[in-house]
């Protein structure tokens, strides 16, 4: 039996109560088994396929981490967003508005089985937030999108639709690209 430790973290904007967990527990297990947040998927279990990707909101901004190989010891005291935390919800927990990334994925019919979708949503959202701070020239968007989503594996091979949806969100959102006359202060 592994040693126990007490952890607390902020998930989707809400700080969890301190919870005693095995110190070798992975973040994915904590989300699913202790918080009942089952939207984040277990894929390869090695951090390679990124079905388990969640956003870590750190001092350097949003970045994607694979929850299946991220230990709760590291996650303790940190802030994360799961796929459940992207859309807006009413007081009863019903979705009232999806993010532009989620809407673009719907508009492009990006997913088939949807198993990998939470990871793609996290990667695309983190990219959008990075570009809000550090825009890129419009002609570089396709390469930036490919680089940002490159680690995500889709078993249904829906890559093109995910890439097109993410590209379209970035090109349609003022301030995410430079050199379009909208990026600096407009």
TrEMBL record:
SUPFAM superfamilies: 2Fe-2S ferredoxin-like, CO dehydrogenase ISP C-domain like. InterPro entries: 2Fe-2S-bd, 2Fe-2S-bd_dom_sf, 2Fe-2S_ferredoxin-like_sf, 2Fe-2S_ferredoxin-type, Aldehyde_Oxdr_Iron-Sulfur, Beta-grasp_dom_sf. Gene3D superfamilies: 3.10.20.30, [2Fe-2S]-binding domain. Keywords: Oxidoreductase. GO terms for molecular function: 2 iron, 2 sulfur cluster binding; metal ion binding; oxidoreductase activity, acting on the aldehyde or oxo group of donors. Residues 5-86 form the 2Fe-2S ferredoxin-type domain. Its EC number is 1.17.2.1. It comes from the Bacteria. Signal peptide: none annotated. This is (2Fe-2S)-binding protein. It comes from Roseovarius indicus.
């Amino acid at each position: 039996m592994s040693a126990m430790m007490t952890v607390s973290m902020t998930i989707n904007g809400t700080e969890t109560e301190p919870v005693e967990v095995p110190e070798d527990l992975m973040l994915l297990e904590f989300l699913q088994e202790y918080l009942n947040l089952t939207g984040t998927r277990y894929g390869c279990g090695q951090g390679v396929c990124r079905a388990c990707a969640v956003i870590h909101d750190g001092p350097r901004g949003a970045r994607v981490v694979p929850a299946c190989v991220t230990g709760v010891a590291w996650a303790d005291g940190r802030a994360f967003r799961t796929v459940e935390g992207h859309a807006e919800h009413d007081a009863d927990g019903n979705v009232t508005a999806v993010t532009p990334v989620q809407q673009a994925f719907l508009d492009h019919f990006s997913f088939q089985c949807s198993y990998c979708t939470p990871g793609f949503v996290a990667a695309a959202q983190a990219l959008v937030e990075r570009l809000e701070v550090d825009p890129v020239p419009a002609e570089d968007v396709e390469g930036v999108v490919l680089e940002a989503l490159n680690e995500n594996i889709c078993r249904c091979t829906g890559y093109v639709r995910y890439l097109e949806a993410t590209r379209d969100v970035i090109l349609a959102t003022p301030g995410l690209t430079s050199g379009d006359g909208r990026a600096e202060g407009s």
